[in-house]
Write a structure and sequence with these properties.
Belongs to the cation transport ATPase (P-type) (TC 3.A.3) family. Type IB subfamily. Keywords: ATP-binding, Copper, Ion transport, Membrane, Metal-binding, Nucleotide-binding, Repeat, Translocase, Transmembrane, Transmembrane helix, Transport. This is Copper-transporting ATPase RAN1. The protein is an alpha+beta fold and about 1050 residues long. Helix content is about 45%, strand content about 20%. It contains 33 helices and 36 strands. A 7-stranded mixed β-sheet has the order 24-36-35-34-25-32-33, with helices on both faces. The chain has a 6-stranded antiparallel β-sheet with strand order 16-15-17-23-18-21, with no helix packed on it. A 6-stranded antiparallel β-sheet has the order 26-31-30-29-28-27. It starts with about 50 loop residues before the first strand and ends in a 6-residue tail after the last helix. The relative contact order is 0.10.
Length: about 1050
């Protein structure tokens, strides 16, 4: 049963210490607190008596070999029972005997293996930070390939106070979890800059900081005025004004002053002289992306402007006699043409190309290599050889050909490639930009007096909205914040957030989501969640987190990147020596040599071509760009993907396990039948049952109470909209007093009324209580169950007095989706706590199911049957805690298993599955146990999720094939392997052009995923629509 929005907690809460609250279960539903997590550790959840479990943060792991080393080191310690290492989480789980092993021994074992370790006081989970730490997001400029990423991550993880650091190449972002008492954000920025990269803070998890853009400051006096106001403002702890960007960063005490009163106070204090606007961190990120692309274009333009004359001097001018005669005019030791080329190329090499030398130097200083090393090496070889050739000619009179134009054109083409790559990478983050643009810039605040009466309205910045604010939303305007309607009614288009295409009616007390569009009438809403707590912010956060994560397939690219540049340098040296020695030995004719050239020059050009044509960037971008686009495409279709690892696992899914209630069914249970077997009035019977069930929060209990209330008061259930909130108030006047109430998970409820025991639940509850079920009642139950109803038995005292039938209709798309999954090669399973007859009746609704079923009366019956089409496997009579065991039973043979549940009562199974999909989450996108969050309550999104994953990894494989194939083919061509037989020779400048375009082509290949369209079920099922 889907919860209302006001019952949802949208912040990402710690799950390791989450408390599971078992409530009454008459069928297959157990109730768990909405955002509690289930930490699946297989045997780790079962700790033997006397054993102790700790979690250790492990720094320095970069690949699977590292995690295997740590795991082996831990298992070798005497007294360690079990050890498991998670590479992506940089964490180890260890179960040990405290009598033999101390925490310090575990830490020392990891450090002896060459890694850094820190014992965690308590397990950390997704979206949570240990007490006292902050999560900072930084932009990092200057990264070109996976080697740069590894270098920055290594530097950050070695800093004292930094607990975790993740860097993403595609977004040029780094997320750092750090202890502000040990290290500041400025020190983190300095560490990144000391390594030779550019860095700046985007945003922090600090809730007491605001960044304002200030217009109207024209002199030092204006700056002093602003600083004077801030210095005297009560609650302002610290501030910093940047004269270049005209931005002021203010740190304040939220208990003394809030952001809106701070902005209002500055505006009033300056008398309207300054115009203030709150800066969104995402807007600042976008501006940095634009600035980077503009800077790269400026460098390319400068290099092109200087390189064209060099090209003309070398290629065109020799065919123009008058111009050529001027170039041959000797000026000092060199000709005029040589002077011009030397000067122009020097500007390109050391002014425009300075960034390559800086980047190469920092890479080498950090003990790594990257593309910049190759570019700097290739261009320097060409440039300095040409300089030496000139000087040698001036000294000896023997003039060898120079290759200045090679250096200039190499740098020009590389810069062109980098500029195009910036543009393409910017397109990959369009999903986040579109999500950010959904939020309106301003909001209309209703100003009220102390009595709550509206006295006026004013326009404020949407980032200054506070919880509890009353806001006015005009027709056609965007809703500025999450909240509740307090006045008016209208239809709201939520498609851009939830993917639900049909506008939804919003009336008083209806929840609304920020960023959605009000279609018709005016609304007054009361803001409830703003800032990072808002639904839109959490969607952006999830998409960002997914884009920051690395898919396991990325390990391959990281490994190749670590050895790529040294391998290419060795190949270039072998090429140089091979051609030079072969020439010296007369293995090829002198006619192959350039005019006035020699064997060394001939060999050097091949060697330079090898250096500059090799491209590690394409490999490094193959996975992150595709994952980045896929997560954005998924968000646009209402499918939120929590990471690259989940995306990779989903494309291998072999089994999809569906929970029945609320997933395959509509989750709206209704009482269909009531049968009393004793001399008791039907109204009294329902009153008795409702009294027992009124204290339960279970969906079936709510359905029974609602049915009884309707029967007692003769009103329509739909007439009472807030039954869930005030049902106890509306019916408390006619219920019996209940004592000693208890909910029994998987069975029902037990209580006392008027001194007599009352039991409401399934067969197991009744039989375990020693109450006999007569043949008449059993036959009635069988009829109910074979018609897809759940039978609820009621006992009063020591006798069974009646039965209620409760039904939950199958979703209309369920059968088609199950058939579609079968067509995709995915086997489907239904798991339910209901008995076999009800499960069989539900399964019959999924098209073709076999005619023979297990004998439900047999004591030796099996809990599984297999069909040809539709639901291919059913597990019935599964207790709430047993769903995770069902998942594991399918994983025993190595199969990849997905679990689809509503995220409310399926957390253990969702966490146990290889891919957990929470369906129908709506605004509750922070379900911790799920890898995929499907925002709509539509099973078709399960197919969409798997299809996105498959298409993404098909694209990633294609990217890798191209990136590897490019290097495998291009390097031999550049080395001149085909020159003797085919006469193919690739000049260094052409090799540079190929290298520049290779990474661009990989990014553009990933961008093709933006054209993704959700699969049509008619296509999957091969149905022809007339």
């Amino acid at each position: 049963m889907a919860p209302s929005q006001r019952d949802l907690q949208l912040t990402q809460v710690a799950g390791a210490g989450g408390r599971v609250v078992p409530l009454e279960d008459s069928g297959d539903l157990e109730d768990v607190r909405l955002l509690d997590s289930y930490e699946d550790g297989d045997n780790f959840n079962r700790i033997e008596e006397g054993m102790r479990r700790v979690q250790v943060s492990v720094s320095g792991m970069t690949c699977a070999a590292c995690s295997n080393s740590v795991e082996a080191a831990l298992k070798s310690v005497n007294g360690v029972l079990r050890a498991s290492v998670a590479l992506l989480q940089n964490k180890a789980d260890v179960v040990f005997d405290p009598g033999l092993v101390k925490d310090e021994d575990i830490k020392n074992a990891i450090e002896d293996a060459g890694f850094e370790a820190e014992i965690l006081s308590e397990p950390t989970t997704f979206g949570t930070k240990p007490h006292g730490t902050l999560l900072g997001q930084f932009t990092i400029g200057g990264m070109t390939c996976a080697a740069c990423v590894n270098s920055v991550e290594g530097i950050l993880r070695t800093l004292p106070g930094v607990r975790k650091a993740v860097v993403a190449l595609a977004t040029s972002l780094g997320e750092v979890e750090y202890d502000p008492a040990v290290i500041s954000k400025d020190e983190i920025i300095n560490a990144i800059e000391d390594a030779g990269f550019e860095a700046s803070l985007v945003q922090s998890s600090e809730q007491d900081k605001i960044i304002l853009g200030v217009a109207g400051i024209h002199s030092a006096i204006d700056e002093q005025l602003l600083e004077g106001m801030l210095s005297q403002f009560k609650g302002v702890k610290n501030f910093r004004f940047d004269t270049t960007s005209r931005q002021v960063e203010i740190l304040f005490d939220p208990e003394v002053v809030n952001s809106r009163s701070l902005v209002d106070g500055i505006a009033e204090g300056c008398g309207g002289k300054f115009k203030l606007n709150v800066l969104s961190p995402y807007a600042r990120m976008t501006s940095k992306d634009v600035e980077e692309a503009a800077n790269m274009f400026r460098l390319f333009r400068s290099s092109l402007f200087l390189s064209i004359p060099v090209f003309l001097i070398r290629v065109i001018c020799p065919h123009i006699p008058r111009v050529y005669s001027l170039l041959l005019w000797r000026c000092g030791p060199f000709q005029m043409g040589d002077w011009l080329k030397w000067v122009l190329v020097s500007l390109v090499q050391f002014v425009v190309g300075k960034r390559f030398y800086i980047a190469a130097a920092r890479a080498l200083r950090n003990g790594s290599t990257n593309m910049d090393v190759l570019v700097a090496l290739g261009t320097s070889a060409s440039y300095f050889y040409s300089v030496c050739a000139l000087l040698y000619g001036a000294a000896t009179g023997f003039w060898s050909p120079t290759y200045f134009e090679t250096s200039a054109m190499l740098i020009t083409f590389v810069l062109l490639g980098k500029y195009l790559e910036c543009l393409a990478k910017g397109k990959t983050s369009d999903a986040i930009k579109k999500l950010v643009e959904l939020s309106p810039a301003t909001a209309v605040l209703l100003v009220k007096d102390k009595g709550g009466k509206c006295t006026g309205e004013r326009e404020i910045d949407a980032l200054l909205i506070q919880p509890g604010d009353s806001l006015k939303v005009l027709p056609g305007a965007k809703i500025p914040a999450d909240g509740v309607v307090v006045w008016g009614s209208s239809y709201v288009d939520e498609s851009m957030v939830t993917g639900e295409s049909v506008p939804i009616l919003k009336e008083v007390n209806s929840p609304v989501i920020g960023g959605t569009i009000n279609s018709h009438g005016a609304l007054h809403i009361q803001a409830s969640k703003v800032g990072s707590d808002a639904v839109l912010s959490q969607i952006i956060c999830l998409v960002e987190t997914a884009q920051m994560s690395k898919a396991p397939i990325q390990k391959f690219a990281d490994f190749v990147a670590s050895i790529f540049v040294p391998t290419v340098v060795v190949m270039a040296l072998l090429t140089l020596l091979g051609w030079y020695i072969a020439g010296a030995l007369g293995a090829y004719p002198e006619q192959w040599l350039p005019a006035n050239g020699n064997y060394f020059v001939f060999a050097l050009m091949f060697s330079i071509s090898v250096v500059v044509i090799a491209c590690p960037c394409a490999l490094g971008l193959a996975t992150p760009t595709a994952v980045m686009v896929a997560t954005g495409v998924g968000a646009n279709n209402g499918v939120l993907i929590k990471g690259g690892d989940a995306l990779e696992r989903a494309q291998k899914i072999q089994y999809v396990i569906f929970d029945k209630t609320g997933t395959l069914t509509q989750g709206k249970a209704t009482v269909t039948t009531t049968k009393v077997f004793v001399e008791m009035d039907r109204g009294e019977f329902l009153r008795l049952v409702a009294s027992a069930e009124a204290s339960s929060e279970h969906p079936l209990a709510k359905a029974i109470v609602e049915y009884a209330r309707h029967f007692h008061f003769f009103d329509e259930p739909s007439a009472t909209k807030d039954v869930e909130d005030n049902s106890k108030d509306s019916i408390s006047g006619w219920l019996f007093d209940v004592s000693e109430f208890s909910a029994l998970p998987g069975r029902g409820v037990h209580c006392f009324i008027n001194g007599n025991q009352v039991l409401v639940g399934n067969r197991k509850l009744i039989t375990e209580s020693g109450i006999a079920i007569s043949t008449k009642v059993e036959d009635f139950l069988v009829d109910l169950e074979e018609s897809a109803n759940t039978g609820i038995l009621v006992a009063y005292g020591d006798s069974l007095i009646g039965v209620l039938g409760v039904a939950d209709p199958i979703k209309r798309e369920a059968a088609v989706v199950v058939e579609g999954l079968a067509k995709m090669g995915v086997r489907t399973v239904m798991v339910t706590g209901d008995n076999w007859r009800t499960a069989r009746a539900v399964a019959k609704e999924f098209w073709l199911i076999p005619n023979s079923y297990p004998d439900v009366r047999s004591e030796e019956r099996k809990d599984v049957y297999t069909g040809q089409v539709g639901i291919q496997d059913v597990r019935a009579e599964v207790l709430p805690a047993g769903k995770a065991d069902v998942v594991r039973s399918f994983q025993k043979d190595g199969s990849i298993v997905a679990m689809v549940g509503d995220g409310i009562n399926d957390s253990p199974a969702l966490a146990a599955a290889d891919v957990g999909m929470a369906i129908g989450a709506g605004t509750d996108i922070a379900i911790e146990a799920a890898d995929y969050v499907l925002m709509r309550n539509n099973l078709e999104d399960v197919i969409t999720a798997i299809d996105i994953s498959r298409k993404t990894f098909s694209r990633i494989r294609l990217n890798y094939i191209f990136a590897m194939g490019y290097n495998v083919v291009a390097i031999p061509i550049a080395a001149g392997v085909f020159f003797p037989s085919l006469g193919i020779k690739l000049p260094p400048w052409a090799a540079g052009a190929c290298m520049a375009l290779s990474s661009v082509s990989v990014v553009c290949s990933s961008l093709l995923l933006r054209r993704y369209k959700k699969p049509r079920l008619t296509t999957i099922l091969e149905i022809t629509v007339e």
